[in-house]
Write a structure and sequence with these properties.
- The structure is a single chain.
- The strands form four sheets. A seven-stranded antiparallel beta sheet has the order 3-2-6-9-10-5-4. Strands 1-13-14 form a three-stranded antiparallel beta sheet, with no helix packed on it. It has a two-stranded antiparallel ribbon with strand order 7-8.
- By secondary structure, it is mainly beta.
- A hairpin with a 4-residue loop joins strand 4 and strand 5.
- The chain contains three helices and 14 strands.
- The longest helix is centred in the first third of the chain and has 9 residues.
- The structure holds flavin mononucleotide.
- The site of flavin mononucleotide has 20 residues, from strand 3, strand 5, helix 1 and helix 2.
């Protein structure tokens, strides 16, 4: 297959949709983020890239804490709203019902079936965006979304982001750490 150069861009084929929760001036604020991933296994860490202009960033800097909340597909309207309206112009504290965990300063959404409570481990100034690496202090999940002690993707029904569109998880293709065993030269 012939390749074509598309120019440099932070391309990822798919991304998770998350709500970054932070307490700004003592009020919960949530912003939509797709530029997020796992950063470390032990200790457990995640990371998210925030543009310098985000209101949420003020809260993260203020408290050194934040949360990542996983919305389900049925919560797409609220999730998108938090991505098109800034806390600078609109109070977003009532979009979700907030609860607090061990850190006390990272608001989490009751409506989102999975919540990660994080303490900032490091922040990395990359340019337009600051990459926040957070140590996961606790994970909360709706009881009915848990199978064998872990959030169950079929029950959580998370949103996937690609090509300016929200998607649902599709069909299972194969088992990871297993399909490769069928490689012809195994
Ligand atoms: C689908 C989607 C994904 C987004 N991902 C990010 C992201 O990863 N990082 C970021 O800084 N902004 C991202 N944004 C933009 C912010 O969510 C948006 O600017 C929001 O209004 C910021 O809210 P705040 O100013 O209250 O923090 C995204 C928006 C949408 C709709």
């Amino acid at each position: 297959m012939e390749k074509t150069a598309l120019g440099p861009m932070p391309y990822m084929s798919i991304m998770p949709i998350l709500l970054v929760g932070a307490l700004v001036k003592e009020k919960p604020n949530y912003m939509t983020a797709a530029w997020a991933s796992v950063a470390c296994m032990a200790p457990p860490m995640v990371c998210v890239a925030l543009n310098r202009s985000r209101y949420t960033l003020k809260g993260i800097e203020e408290n050194g804490t934040f949360s990542l909340n996983v919305p389900s597909a049925k919560g797409v309207t609220e999730a998108d709203y938090c991505g098109i309206v800034s806390g600078v112009v609109k109070d977003k504290s009532t979009v979700y019902t907030s609860f607090f965990g061990k850190l006390g300063t990272a608001p989490m959404s009751k409506e989102c079936p999975v919540n990660l409570e994080c303490r900032v481990f490091q922040s990395l100034e990359c340019g337009s965006h600051i990459l926040y690496i957070g140590e996961v202090i606790e994970v909360y999940a709706d009881r009915e979304c848990v199978t064998d002690g872990k959030p169950d993707v079929n029950k959580v029904n998370p949103l996937v982001y690609s090509q300016t569109t929200y998607w649902k998880i599709g069909e299972e293709v194969a088992k990871a750490f297993s399909a490769g065993k069928n490689y012809v030269n195994w």
